[in-house]
Request: fold
Amino acid sequence: MFHHLKRVSIGLRARRAEKALHQLPDHILKDIGIRRGAIAYAVREHFKDRLV
Reply:
């Protein structure tokens, strides 16, 4: 059960991170090296090791 709760928690953190990145202006995304269309992929890649 703990493993399931941990996955849910990480999933929520990933969604919050994605939402926060979508709210940033394009010039800031460019400064950190993420295109707006690649936000979901970048967040998934960041959290993928934690979801195992």
Notes: The CA atoms of residues 41 and 50 lie 15 Å apart. The longest helix spans residues 2-23. The chain has three helices and no strands.
